[in-house]
């Protein structure tokens, strides 16, 4: 399909990017479900904890106990939202859960998931990882027919479509509703009788099936199974619908066959390094990215360091291939939340220093290769390089284990607009000058695909080749003016 119109030249972002200076792409959600265990809510809580990296702004769990659906969701981290007393109020043997990272302007409890409603066939809850690319178009149609939306969450679209469907079974209504939407979705539905898991025909977002004793579990990533000692069974196939009820697990394929287009950025940054997606180890793939980067963008240096944690695997690969020793040059704090009270007397680069601190004895007088997974706006990279120079680094060479990110994502990833992406209309030399490093080197698109291995990936954020059409190319979403406090 055609690319969206190129953005005009832009002024590079200032150094003031908010308290934590977070300049990464973000997967917007993680989902987890259990069917057939009296500890369903507790297992879901642990599964969501293992998926916390996929969303840190809200968490929710819906559980069914003898045909009664109970829902609890709040803004915050899983460990803070689900206390022992809250979990005690969520009895049942089947459950789905959700962690969310919202786009700008969307951090409100009304957008937290799972969503749960009562309708003609009973109760239903939904948890969604992805993005419907025809959301605006479908919402306008439904509003024209009298539907009233309470959130800006595109998952609410499904609730209306399911309620309007005429099929006699929930699973058939879900299938009918999904025929009307486009885009990326890994979905979990919980009804009074069953747990339904669906993955879009392209398989943009991951989804896996596991088992613990007689209970079935479903999760965005397999490491969520490890925490509860569940066994990985297999991935949900692109375009597959899984129905789990008291009779066991059944598989359907309600969509026309479509070439797979899983998000390749899962292997660069989103997924946990201990994940295996589509039979490919994320850790091994990231090491290969670093090895390929060393071949494509070599550098004379004394040591290789990583921007923790996402750059570590690639940095190890770069070190192995180049023969330059790997050292720990930046220490990351693991105890920083998404908000922090900044001192009244401004400290320059305060947010980055909350997360990272240089090891001066490692860096002083050295020529340093620093490996990271991506440069988005460039603001964080600029601050990191200044920290390294302040710690005594003689030279700083930035190496990126992916191609330049030049295009926004419309398939469930929170990305800036194209005008904010530094690589969209700035040369490599201009980027190096802005972030104040001695050189910048990126991995090529060909090198990325070869290092990950396999076939059938979406690389639209690098190439601009979007495999599924979208009806709102600016990527903007209207925000309701009525906000509860």
What is the count of distinct domains?
Answer: 2
Taken from the alpha-carbon principal axes, the silhouette is: globular
Tell me what portion of residues adopts beta-strand conformation: 25-35%
- What's the Cα radius of gyration? 23 Å
Percent of residues in helices comes to 25-40%
Question: Unreliable segments (pLDDT under 50, ≥5 consecutive)?
Answer: 1-21, 473-485
Q: What is the number of helices?
A: 16
The assigned structural class equals: alpha+beta
Strand order of the largest sheet: 4-3-5-2-11-10-12
Number of DSSP-assigned strands: 25
| CATH class (first level) name of the largest domain | Alpha Beta
Query: Can you name the CATH architecture of the largest domain?
Result: 4-Layer Sandwich
> How much is the average pLDDT?
88
- Say what the CATH topology of the largest domain is: Glutamine Phosphoribosylpyrophosphate, subunit 1, domain 1
Biggest pleated-sheet summary: 7 strands, antiparallel
C-alpha termini separation:
42 Å
Give the full name of the CATH homologous superfamily of the largest domain: Aminohydrolase, N-terminal nucleophile (Ntn) domain
Secondary structure layout:
Elements lengths: L25 E2 L1 E7 L4 H11 L7 E8 L2 E8 L2 H4 L2 H5 L5 E7 L14 E5 L2 E11 L2 H10 L11 H9 L5 H9 L4 E9 L3 E5 L8 E5 L2 E5 L3 H4 L4 E5 L5 E5 L2 E5 L9 E2 L1 H6 L5 E2 L2 E2 H15 L6 E4 L5 H11 L7 E3 L17 H6 E3 L1 H4 L3 E6 L6 H12 L4 E6 L12 E2 L13 H8 L3 E4 L2 H8 L4 E2 L1 H4 L22
Parallel strand pairs: 15-25, 18-21, 21-22, 22-24
Antiparallel strand pairs: 1-23, 2-5, 2-11, 3-4, 3-5, 6-7, 7-8, 8-9, 9-13, 10-11, 10-12, 13-14, 16-17, 19-20
């Amino acid at each position: 399909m055609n690319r969206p119109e190129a953005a005009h030249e832009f002024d590079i972002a200032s150094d003031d990017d908010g308290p934590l200076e977070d300049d990464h792409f973000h997967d917007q959600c993680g989902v987890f479900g259990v069917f057939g265990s009296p500890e369903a809510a507790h297992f879901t809580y642990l599964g969501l904890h293992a998926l916390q990296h996929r969303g840190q702004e809200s968490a929710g769990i819906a559980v069914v106990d003898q045909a009664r659906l109970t829902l609890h969701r709040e803004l915050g981290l899983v460990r803070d939202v689900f206390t022992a007393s809250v979990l005690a109020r969520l009895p049942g043997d089947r459950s789905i859960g959700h962690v969310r990272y919202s786009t700008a302007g969307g951090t409100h409890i009304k957008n937290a998931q799972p969503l749960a409603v009562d309708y003609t066939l009973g109760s239903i809850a939904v948890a969604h990882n992805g993005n419907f690319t025809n959301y605006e178009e479908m919402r306008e149609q439904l509003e024209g027919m009298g539907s009233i939306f309470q959130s800006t969450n595109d998952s609410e679209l499904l609730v209306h479509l399911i309620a309007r469907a005429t099929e006699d079974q929930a699973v058939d209504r879900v299938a009918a509703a999904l025929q009307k939407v486009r885009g990326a979705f890994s979905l979990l539905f919980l009804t009074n009788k069953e747990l339904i898991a669906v993955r879009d025909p392209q398989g943009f977002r991951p989804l896996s099936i596991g088992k613990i004793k007689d209970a079935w579990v479903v999760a965005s990533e397999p490491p969520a199974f490890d925490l509860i000692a569940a066994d990985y069974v297999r991935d949900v196939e692109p375009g597959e619908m899984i129905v789990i009820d008291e009779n066991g697990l059944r598989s359907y394929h309600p969509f026309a066959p479509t070439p797979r287009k899983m998000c390749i950025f899962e292997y660069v940054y989103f997924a946990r390094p201990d994940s295996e997606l589509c039979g490919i180890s994320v850790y091994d793939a990231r090491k290969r990215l670093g090895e390929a980067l060393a071949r494509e963008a070599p550098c004379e240096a004394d040591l290789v360091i990583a921007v923790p944690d996402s750059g570590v695997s690639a940095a190890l690969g770069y070190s192995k291939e180049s023969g330059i020793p790997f050292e720990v040059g930046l220490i990351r704090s693991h105890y920083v939340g998404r908000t922090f009270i900044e001192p009244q007397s401004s400290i320059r680069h305060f947010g980055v220093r909350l997360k990272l601190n240089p090891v001066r004895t490692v860096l002083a007088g050295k020529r340093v290769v620093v490996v990271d997974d991506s440069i988005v706006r460039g603001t964080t990279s600029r601050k990191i390089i200044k920290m390294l120079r302040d710690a005594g680094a003689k030279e700083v060479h930035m190496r990126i284990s992916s191609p330049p990110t030049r295009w926004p994502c419309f398939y469930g990833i929170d990305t800036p607009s194209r005008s904010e992406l530094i690589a969209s209309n700035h040369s490599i030399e201009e980027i190096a000058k802005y972030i104040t490093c001695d050189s910048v080197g990126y991995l090529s698109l060909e090198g990325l695909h070869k290092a990950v291995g396999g076939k059938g990936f979406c690389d639209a954020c690098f190439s601009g080749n979007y495999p599924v059409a979208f009806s709102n190319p600016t990527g903007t979403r209207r925000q309701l003016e009525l906000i509860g406090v």
